Each structure stands twice: as structure tokens, then as C-alpha cells.
Amino acid sequence: MNRSVYTFLVFGALVNAAYAEEKALVSDEDTIVVRSTPTSQSMGTQIITATQIAKMPTRNGSITELLKNNPNVQFSNQSDNSNTPGELQPENVSFHGEKFYQNSYLIDGLSNNNTINPGANNGELSNSPDGYSPTDLPAGGTQSFWINAELIASAEVFDSNISAKYGGFTGGVVDAKLKDPDLNKPSGRISFRTTNHHLTEYHVDDRIHEAFEQATSLTYQPQFTKKFYTATINQPLSDQAGIIFSYNRQESDIPFYHSVLGKWEDQNRKSENFLLKGSYLLANGDTLRATAMYSPHESTYPKKDVEDGAFTNTGGGYRFNLEWNHLAQWGKVTSLIGYQFEENDIQHESDYYASWYNRYQNTNSKSISWNSTGSASTATRLGYYGGSGHFATEKSSLTAKQDYELKPIQWGQTQHQIDLGWNIDNYSARYQRFGDVISSRGTSTWSTATVCQAGDVLCLEGEQYFKNRTLYPARVVKGNYTNIAAYLQDSMRWNNFEVTAGMRLSYDDYLSNLNISPRLSGSFDVFGDHKTRLFAGANRYHAQSLLAYKLRQGISQYYVQSRTNASSAWTTGTLTKASYDYDISTLKTPYSDELNLGISQRIADTVWTLKYVNRQGRDQFGRNNATAADGQKYYYLSNEGKTKGNTVSLNIEPISPYAFKYIDLTWSFNASYSNNKSSSQTYYDVSNTDENMVVFDNKLMQRGDMDALDYSTPWKAYFNVDMTVPRWNFNWTQRLGYTSGYKSYSTSTLICDGTGLCGNYVGNATLYTPVKYKNYVSYDWRFSYTKPMFKTQSLELTVDVMNVFNTAIESSKSTTLSSAITYKTGRQIWLGAAWNW
Fold first, then answer.
1. Is the pTM of this model over 0.85?
2. Domain with residues 3-351+387-436+473-545+589-678+710-740+775-836, CATH architecture
3. Which of 103, 174, 777, 824 is 20 to 30 A off residue 241, Cα-Cα?
4. How far apart are CA 81 and CA 75, in angstroms?
5. 289-336 pLDDT, tens per residue?
6. Within 13 Å, how many C-alpha atoms sit on residue 149's CB side?
7. Domain boundaries in the chain?
8. Mean pLDDT, to the nearest integer, of 491-499?
9. Whole-angstrom Cα distance, residue 112 to residue 340?
């Protein structure tokens, strides 16, 4: 039987069983019992509400930008890059030193993870972005849908002691809930936000300043304009039913200059979200929700000095899901079924590439009017043309899941709060190159006697033609797998003790591994008054499967074709296997083991929480290479990769906001120290074996024992103040941050002879020479003023000021000693207006 059909049959059977049991057990005198989150798990949870989101200083307003205040989250060094302020893609984050592409992002219970190729280019924009080459595996970042935070009702962020309910990650979990319809009254909102290069202060290294101002690189964006639009309409249909529709559009125009072609061309970014959501409250207290969402995004990139060389990477997709929250005498069951389609589609302006003569031995071409390589006086010049056709990855997902929350049960002197559930995910993925892609080889043959064959794109009549070309054949690679998971968790309370023991089992037929993920945490209320609580935990988290390795098979294979003259037929050689294929046999599923402990102490009207988390990432994918007997080169994946993270964090918050005569005030403070290590320093699946030695911080060690070079800021602290003046309808939110200075390294080869820093080691080692930059203080503001208008209508004006003091902050630098420093964006102002009713 088809696995998708089987999934839905199982789902339907269990839903019917739950409904039958409810009819048998529910009485007319139901008692509402409040369940609580276990204390030890709440200490690893951040809850962000829609009210907090509306007051938070933001740039693009992505989901991950909401985590700026979380002390257990590390952002990439490239975050808020001053060279690329026009980008829209969500920021990448790491929890406790784990890989940035191994977090779990959920939207209304369905995964928002891009599992095709989330680690491409280390998650950074480069001058050869995804889709630049015909052998690229299209990628769209770590999140499939680029959801704007305005659509979110709440988000729960889990970094430690994570419930057995969640799986498919080794880092953290971000569980976002979209806004539900408001059944009380019709309402709506139309808003606009904008910023541009005139409202932005840049900090650029003097070594690249001139090139930056000329905008001759995709990563140099001295000019940009961002415009964000949102329209939301909420309509109750009755006392029990309602719908909400929301449209969100973000667009960014970034001029790019072809320095040799001598012309401007825009590189564009766009992200859209169409959301239609309905809810229905049943008489027995159940809730039904139905959601349809279409969320595409696209990025258009020119190719430097190439005529008709631009290409567009279109990502995102659509999803449908049904949710049923069912109340019974024994507890609550949430049933969810959903379908999602996502793609990353690369469309070039041309399906062939050629390097033509623009000028040959002082003779100008009549057909190639553009010059890509030299000055007008050069005797021989080239004109580059074209691209790599059309290719794409796509993934469709069917998900069925149920979560049961049983009412607390008293067994003797112990109270038990049991949670259990299951989910089935069926994935179908595909890579397709829709047609043959042709690229010229070498230089063309110039001859005024050239006679072209019909349809020959590598021939110009009476001028020039190519004798050699590369052909990348049309191809399709498919990958399918099913993931099955189940979990059981029991939170037990006895006197002042609370222990939560859970187990999650998962299996997918991609790696064919049965993964057992135990979760154990506990807390002790020392004096029984909820003022002093000790907590600790030991947990294992297993990673999600990535389809990149399967879909890459044979992606770079090509034929070399040749001919003797323009009139002769092409002769095809043997299939060239110069590319690397992937061998994924006998792999274990990567996992992360966690130990944590901490204390939560109430002091006056504040709560202080001190926590230590240790993560040991093991069996992570490492990439090595080998050559088979027939000469085929391939990568074989191993489980040699590893990470290590240590985080100490402190969080201080008042129990409730302060209400003065004219001002409502709330605040929070958090700080953290992190020490993260990784065996993969440059590319997301490159591993370095124990034989690779380095001298780091004047100590000889294995590469896997050195500090991570990204997502590794040691010290950081944030102080947040939210001040509201109700009589003026005015709000001012401030975020003051302290971050330890960035440390970069230059590398060189050290020949060890068994003396000095090398100790007894003899051989080559990589020497890392550190350069430490200054610690810095950041300061962000958000102002909001609401002017009541006619009846229930109001005008809302907002101003976000990021990096108020325009501090020059060094953020990254390559390992080349003479390379330029990258800074974070200087002062940037966002202006916004909204009409509410």
C-alpha cells in the first residue's frame, strides 16, 4: 500500500478511537485541570508573545531575529553585515555550539526546515551564490518559508531539557504559532515599513572602500531600498467561527555595477507570505483549525560582466494543514495532518554559456558588441554571454501526528503528568536539470568564412565558432524516505521534588537507523515556597536527515564534445566523472548529548536563573575523499565530525511589570559565557581527522579541539527596557548589549620537528595566529505611537533605530593576513506606519 495512504489511514483510525473514548468518558460535570510545564523544562524555554514582538527593535523581522536576547543562542559573524544590508534571508543561529542547520523550526506544528541543502556556502552570501554553477545543488537556507514575525502569535524557544515531544535536531527548537482569528469583532491592519542606504550608516574597511562604493561585487551593497507591506483582515463568521487573511511582502532593490561592461543592473530580493486561517469552536470545547499558506521568495543575481548572465533563485512553497484540539475527560489530544511543497528553482536567462571574441587581433566583432575583459585599445578581447539553464530541487511532505496530554494522576504520594504522541512524515524529493546545458571550452576559432548550421548557438556566421564544448545532460535524481517517531514522557511530583523522564524513538528508511533519545530532567524546590529551585538534566537529541547527499549523486558529470569545423557534427566523448559523488552507506544518525544544571532564585520581586549547559555533538557527518579503481572520485561520509559546547547563562526578570502613575515599565537582563569547539571549521560537512594537527592559542592540538571560528562569541549581555506611557499611547523599547570583541586568525604552515610548541610531534601543523578586536556596546531603540482616529480606528507610527551610537563593530575576517575586516551595520533607521481597525 502507498505509504502516504497508509499514513492517513493510521491517522484517521487513531482520531476516531480518541473520539469514541471521549463519548464514553465525558460527563456533564467535567472538571478543568490545569497542567503545568515541568520546572526543569521551563528553565530551558523562552516564550515570546505577539505583544513582545510588536515592541521589539527589528530589522527584517525574521523568526531568528527574535532570538537576539536569548543568552543561549549564537548568531553568525556575518549577521548584520555592513557590506550586505540589502539582504532579506533569515539569520542563521547556533544553540550551544551545534551546527546552524541542525535546529528544528516549526510553524503551527509542521516543520519549516529546509533539509535539501541547508548548509550551502556555510549559510553565507558569496560572489558565487547558490545556482551560479550548473553543478550547484539549489539551496534556500535553513528555513523553507521566510515567515515575517508580524504573522506570529507566539513562539517557544527551547535550548535545554527539551521535551521528548520534539525531535529532528541537535541544536535547539523554535516552535512558532501563527495568529488565530479573533472571534470577538472584525478587525484589520495595513502597514508599511522602509529603510534604505540614506537611512543607513556604513562601516567599511579602507582596503575595499573604493571597490565597495563602485558596487562591483554581489557582496558590496552601498545602495539599497527595502519596502515591507502587510495587510491583515480578521472576520468572525459567528460566535464560534472566524477567518483571518494576511498578506506580507518584503522587497529589496540592490543596484549592481558591471565595471567592464559599464552598466548598472539590479539584484533583487523578494519574500511574500499569503496566509488564510480559519478556526471553529465546537460546543464540547474542541477547536478545529484549517490553514493554507503560500510563501515564495526569490533572489535575482547578475553575473559580473556577463551579458544575459543573471539568474533567479526562487524558493519557498505552499502548505495546507488541519488541526483538531480535542478535550476529553482523560485529558487533551491534538491531531494534526498537513501537506507541504517547497522548491528551490534556478532559472538562468540563457541555457548556454560562451566566451566569445569581442575583438580579435584588432578586428571588432559585429555580433558581440560588449566587452567583458579589457580596455577598448586591447588587441584581443572577450565578451562573456549566457548562463546555465534551468534546474531545481523540490520536496513534498505529508505529515500526520498526534500529541496526548493526560490529566494529572495521583498514585499514592506521587502525582504523574503523562504526555505521549507519535508522528509519521513521508518525504519525496527530487533534483532536476530540465534540459541540456552547454558551455564553450577554450577560445573560439575566428574565420570570416564561418558558415553556421541551423540552431548552432556556438557559431556566429562569418565570424567565429567553437570547436569544443562541455555538455551537462538533462537529468533527474529522486530521493524518498519516511520518518516515524513516537515518544512518552512522565513528569512526576513528590513533595518538593519533580522528575521528568521521557523517551523518543525514531526511525527513517533513509539511513535505516533506529534512534533512541532518552530525556531526563528534574528540579527541587528547596524550601517548598517556589523561591529557591535547583534543576538539572541529561538528554540526547538526534539530528534530522539531510537529502543533499542523495540528490548530489552524479550532479557534476558531463560530456566533452568536439568538431573539426563549423559545418561538421559534434563528436561526444565518454562521460567524465571528475565530480565527487557521495557514499552514505553505513552511516549513524548524528546526535548531541546534553548535561545541564542550574539554580533559580527569587530575590525581592525578581527571579534570577543561573544555568550551565554542556553539549557533546557526536557521530556528526564528516566528509573525506577517495578514488575508486576506475578513476571515479567520490566523497565518502563518515561519522567523524564532532562538536562541543559549554554555556553559562544568567537571566534576571521581574515577576510582573511595574505600574507607576504615568508609566508602565518592565525589563530583563541576561548574560552568557560560551566556549564552543568544532571539527568542521570551513564547510558544513568537512571533517578533519586526528592526523590533522594545529597550533592554536600556542598549544598543539587536534583540529577538533580548537575553538569554533564562527558562532563562538565568548561573552555577551543584554539589558532590555520596555517603557509604556498609556495616556499618550506611546512605547519606547531599548536594548543595550555588550559583546566581547571578535577574534580572527591568520593561518600558516608550521613544520614541527619535535621541539618548541610542537612538543614531541613531528610533521606539518597549521599555525593559527590570533588578532583580537575591541569589545563593543550596542544600543537599539523602537518607538511606537498610536493616534486614535474614527471610532475603533487608529494610526500607528513606529521608528526603529538600530546601533543608535553608530558604533564601528568588527565582526569577521578571513584567515588571510591581508584580507579586509567585515564590520556590522552602523546606525540604521526604519520608518513604519500602520492603520488599524
1. yes
2. Beta Barrel (2.40)
3. 174
4. 12
5. 999 999 999 999 999 999 999 999 999 999 999 999 999 999 999 999
6. 24
7. 3-351+387-436+473-545+589-678+710-740+775-836
8. 97
9. 9
